[in-house]
Design brief:
The complex is a heterotrimer of chains A (274), B (157) and C (766). Chain A is 34% helix and 23% strand. Chain A is an alpha+beta fold. Chain A is globular, with a radius of gyration of 18 Å. In chain B, 67% of the residues are buried. A 5-stranded mixed sheet of chain B has the order 2-1-5-3-4, with helices on one face. The chains are: A alpha+beta (274), B alpha+beta (157), C alpha+beta (766). Chains B and C meet through helix 2, helix 3, helix 4 and helix 5 of B and helix 1 and helix 16 of C.
Amino acid sequence: MIPATFTYKRARSVDEAFSLLADGGDEAKYLAGGQSLLPLMKLRLATPETLVDVGRLDELSYIRDDGSHIAVGALTSHHLVATSELLGRDLPLLAYAAGQVGDPQVRHRGTIGGSLAHADPAADLPAVVLALDATLVARGPGGSREIGAHEFFLGLFETSLQPDELLTEIRVLKPAKVGWSFQKFTKRAIDWAIVGVAVQGGNVALVNMGQTPVRAGAVERALSSGAGLADAAALAADGTSPSDDFNGSTAYRQHLARVLVSRALGEARGRDGG
Amino acid sequence: MDITLSVNGSEVKADVADRMLLVHFIREHLNLTATKVGCDTSSCGACTVLLDGQSVKSCTVLAAQADGRAVTTIEGLANGSGEWHPVQRAFRAEHGAQCGFCTSGMVMAAVSLLSENDSPTEDEVRSALEGNLCRCTGYHNIVRAVLAASASEGTGE
Amino acid sequence: MSILGTRVVRTEDPKILTVGGTYVDDLREPELQGAARVIFVRSPIAHARITGIDTADALQAPGVVAVLTAADMDDLGPPPPPAEPGAGEAAPMPLGGPWQEPLLAFDRVRFVGEPVAIVVCDDSYSGADAAELVSVDYEPLDPVVTLDDALTDSTLLFPDAGSNVAVKAGGPADADAFDGCEVVVERTIINQRLAAMPMEGRAVAACFADGKLTAWVSTQNAQIARFILAGAFGMDPAGIRVVAPDVGGGFGAKVGIDRDGIIVAWAARRLGRAVRWAETRSENLVAMTQGRAQRHLIKLGGTRDGHILAYHLDVIQDTGAYPRMTGFLAFLTSLMAAGAYDIPKVQTAARTVVTNTTPISAYRGAGRPEATAAIERAVDLFAAEIGMDPGEVRRINLVAPDKFPFQSPSGALYDSGDYAAALDKVLAGAGYQELRAEQAGRRERGDTVALGIGLSSYVEITAADAAGGETGRLDVHDDGTATVYTGSSAHGQGHHTTWAMLVESELGIPMDKVTVIHGDTDLIPLAIGTYGSRSLQLGGVAVQKAAWEVKDQAKAVAADMMEASEADLELDAETGLWQVRGDPATAKSWAEVATHAGAEGLTASVNYTEGAPTFPFGAHVAVVEVDTETGKVRLVRHVTVDDAGTIISPLQAEGQRHGGIAQGAAQALQEEVVYDRQGNPQTGTLVDYAAISAPDLPSFELLSMQTPTPVNALGVKGIGEAGTIGATPAVQNAVIDAVSHLGVRHIDMPTTPSRVWAAINEARGL
C-alpha cells in the first residue's frame, strides 16, 4: 500500500527542522526512522502533508556518560541502544528493552525518540523510560525544556510535546546498581506486547495496560512499605484499564500483569546488589 | 525530488516522487525485482535489503531517505568475480528455498545478522529472523542454512 | 547407482538466490511495457445492498484510464444455469443458479473485501489515490457471521435459494450405532478458519492483442485458469494463452483463477490495454479464499479395554459468502472421517453453509486435516475417559498391516501401509516413555511449566482425482539435451529438479542437460496442474512413462544405426550411452541417436491416468511446554514418521514435511482469521494475523519410512499435505495433554495463551 501524497523536506540542523516544520503548516510532522509513522501512512491512517526528515541529524544520535546522568540522543537507533556497552553496563534495562523492539530491521531504522514521541501504549520503551524516571528533553523554536517521563505520556498516541517541538534527548540519572527486569508477553516475537513490565529497583511500569504506559503505583507502595514480592505483585492490575480484544480480555491482561510483575520483581531481586 | 545513491556498488541518480517507497524505487525504477513486497505493515521481511550494510525493510523506507546511502540487494551480494556469498551457497546446499518469494529478504536478513554476530546459536538465528516470514519451509532449512554459513560451522561449504 | 533417492540440490535455486524468481509482478515482458495498474474497490461492509456507485471523481483523477463496475460488463454472457436441486457433492463447482457469484458485485455485497469496482490507472501510486474517490452507497443488511446465525435462516445471503445451507449430505447416526459401547465421548470442536497466506499474493497481468488474450497468472493450474477464462468470456480456449511464471506459494488457494483474476483479464480485453494487478497483503487477507472453517460434533464409543466400536462425525462447513467448492471440502472430511482406524461403524453428516465472510476453498489438506483433527481429538478424549495411554488406544485400533487394501468404513479404499509400525517408530524416536516420566516428575514437583506430549496417527488421500491424470512430454534433442513439458505446475515444490532426476535416472541424460517447462498453455495445452499432492504420482509418473517411450524409440533408432537387433541393445543409464550389449566400442550417445532419428525426432507425449488415489500415512509426536500461569505454549519438539511410499528427492520430501508441520503447528497454536459480530475482519494485516514465524518453532525431527504403493510404477504417494494433516492434532493434543492433570479435556484451536489460561481456570472451577 502507498502513502497519500506529501512533501518531503530534509532538515540539516535542528533549527532548520523547526523552520521547515513551520513552513509545512498544520499537517506537518517530523520523520525520524519512520518505523512507526510510515506503516500508518501506508495504511492511510496518518496523512501528513509535510514530512520533515530529522533522520540525518547525527548530532542527535549518541549515547553519553554525562557524569551525573546518562544521555541518549533521541535519534539513536534501537540497534545502537541495544548494543551499547555503556548502556549494557550502566543502564541494562534500557539496552535490553531496546533489543526487544520490533525486529532487527526495525531496530536498525527505528529510533528511541521516535518510539517515545509516537506514544503507543503497546510499545516497549515508553514504559521503560517511565520506570527509569527519565527526563525527556524537548527543543522547540523557543528553546529547550525538560519533561519528566511521568508527565510526557498524555494519552493514546498523545504526548506533552508541542507540535513544533522535537524530542532531542533522553536523560537518566545514573542509577545505583539496582535490580531490573523487562518482561514482554507476546503472541509472536515480532508482535506488540499483550502486556509488558519494566522494573528498575522499586519502580514498576506497565506496557499496554491502558491508554498510556503506567506506573504500577500500588505495587510500588506495597514494596516500599515492606510487602513481600507476591503480595506486591498481586496489586499489579490495580487501577488499570487494559483493552479487551481478540488478543486478550481485560481480565486476562490484568492476570498477566500480576504474573509478569511477580516474575519481573523476582528477576530484579535476583540481579540486585550487583 | 532528486536523489543519488549507490545501489549494489553503482551510483544511481533519479528524480522520484517524495512518497516513493524504496522498495518500489528498486523494483520499478531500477528493475531489480529480486526484492519483493509481501505485506503492507513491515511484518514479512520479503523486501529486506541492506542500507549502509544493515538490514532494513525497504517497504518502510522512503527512497528519499536513502539519498546518499548505499543499498545492497541480493543481486549485488555475489562478489566482483561472481562468487556467491556464503549465505547464498548455504541456502542452496541446505534447501533453504522453496517457492523463493521470501528468499531474497531472508538471505539479506541473514547476511546482516552474520555481520553483527558471526557465530549465532540456533535460538539467535530464529530470533534474528523474527521479522521475515516464510510459508513453505517451516524455517527448518533456512535456520540450518544460516548456521551453516556462520563462523561456527565454517564458511557455508 | 540411480540418482533417485539421493540428496540432489535444486536446479531452481541459482536464479532464486541471485536475481530472484520471476513472479507475475516481476515480469518485464515487452507486451507488458506500460501496462496499467488495476486497483480494486472492495466492500467495507459484510452484507449490504448497493444503491449507487459514483465514479465521476475518480475518473477525473490524474493517470486514471478507466473506472469499471458491473454495469460495464455487458460484453459477458449470461450466468451458468442453476444446479440440479439437491445435487450434493456431485454439483458443479462453484454452484450456479441462485448461488451465482458475480464478477464485480452489482446488487449486493456479501463479504468485506468483495470486489465492487476497479480503477485502471497509469501507475499504482495514482491508482491508490483514485480508488479512494470511488463512492459507493450501501444500504446495510443484517450480517450473517457465525454458523449459528446462518443456520437459523432468519437472514438469507441468497434469498432465491431459500436457505443458507448450500449442500447437505449424510445424516444422524443410526439409532443403534452406539449400542454395545461401554463408553461414549461426545464434544463439539472447532476447526478454525485460516488464511492460506502464500508469500506471494494473487497476481495477474494480461494483454489482449489480435484477438488473443494472454494472461500471466500466479496459479497452480494454468490450464484450468484458461478453461475458466474461456467460460467466463465465451471465448475459444485456443484464443487464450495462460502462463504461470514463478509462483510464490499457493497452498490450494491458487487453483485455477478466481473472480478477481478474471476481472483483471476482462479489463485487458475490454480496454485493449495491457494491465497488471498484484494484490496487497491487506487485500489478500480478506479476499483470497481461506481454509478450514469447520465445526464438528464428534461422538465416539467403545469398550473400556480400548476397542473403538462406533464413530459419528457431524461436519458443518462454513463456506463463506459463496459456495465456491460446493460440498467438496465437507465431502473429503467425511470420506476420511475414520482416519487410520479399523472402526466397525462410522457415519457422517455434513452441511455446507454460507456466511458473510471471505469464501472458503482448499488450503493445504483441504478437508483431510479437518477429518484427522476430529478423529484424533475423539481418540484422545476416549483414551482420557477410559484412563488408557493414548498411544495404546491407537495401537489397538489402527488398521492392521495384513488388511490392505482396506475398505475404510467411511468410504475410501486405503492402498497400502503399516500404521502401527509408523506409530511405534515415532514413539521410539521421540523417547515416549522418557517423556512421560519427565511429565510425571514435573507434575509431582508442581512445576509451573508443564510438559505435554501429543500424538496423532493419520492416513490421508493424495491424488484423489487420479482418474483425471496428468500430462508429460519428453523431447530428446540432437545435441543430447532433453526438454520436459509437464502438466504439473510447481509453486515451490521443485518439480524441475525432480522431473530432471527422473529423466537422468531413466535415460542417463544428466540433469543439467534437462530443461523442464510447465505452466504455459501454448506449449502445454492439456493438463490439470498441481493440487491435492498429485504431482509426483501423476505428473512425475507421466514423465517416467514418456521416458520409457522415448527409450523404446531410441532403441529402434540405435538398432538401425548399429545394424543390430533391438533385443541386443542396451542403454547404460549411468553414462547415457547406447551400445550392443557387452560391446562398448559400439557406443552411441543420445545426441547421435537423436540426430539419426531425423525429422521424426525422439519425442513422447503421455497422458497418464492412475487407477486409484494413494493413501500416505504416518504418526507424529509433539512435545510442548505450557506455562500454566500465563497459558503460553512453546512447541519444543516435533517428531514425525511420514510414509509417502518411495522417496525420489529426499531433500525436497523433507522440505515438504517441514513446511506442512509448520503450518499444522500454526493452526494448533496461533493462527486464526477472526471477524467481529458485524463481519468485519479483525485479522486483515500481518500485524494481527499471527502467521507463524521462526522463533515460534523448533527444528523438526524427521524419521523415515517408505512403503511403496502398488498403485504406480514409481511406488510414490503424495507428500505435500502430510504435515498439516499429521502435525495439527499432535500439537493440539500435546497442549491439552500438558494440562490434563488439571482437569482440562479439550481446548479449541488455536490454543492461544488466553484460551489455555481460560481452560485451566474453568477446570479449576474458577
